[in-house]
Write a structure and sequence with these properties.
alpha+beta, 122 residues, 3 helices, four-stranded antiparallel beta sheet
Length: 122
């Protein structure tokens, strides 16, 4: 898989990511994307910032199934083994959502001025 970036490399060619990095970027975009952004695919996107920001632990199964369905619909070549979600708080008492897709954990931290994201490979 190849995912193009909005920049150029040192040789003035379109910059891109391949393999694992491209998969992580695509999954991150899919999780952050708000449904309705693309008129041709109105259901595309998880919309974690608006749809799941204020949800509690009782909604984690819905979030997991939504992510699984989005990957199945829009990224069927991805070998999906599991999606696990967990909520918690960080040291500043900000809400944090841990999303583990196969072996990659995406950490979304909801802070008062926006959303931050960190990827960690287990």
């Amino acid at each position: 898989m190849r995912e193009y970036l909005m920049s150029t490399n040192n040789f003035n060619e379109p910059a891109h990511l391949d393999g694992y990095e491209a998969e992580c970027l695509f999954l991150t975009r899919l999780i952050l994307l708000e449904p309705g952004t693309y008129p041709n695919h109105p259901d595309m996107g998880v919309g974690i910032n608006t749809r799941w920001r204020y949800s509690g632990d009782n909604m984690l199964m819905d979030l997991e199934s939504t992510i699984e369905q989005q990957i199945t619909d829009y990224y069927p070549e991805f070998l999906l083994s599991s999606v696990k979600c967990k909520m918690g708080t960080d040291s500043l008492n900000n809400k944090v959502v841990f999303i583990t897709i196969s072996s990659t954990t995406m950490v979304y931290s909801f802070v008062s001025d926006g959303i931050t994201l960190k990827l960690s490979d287990l």
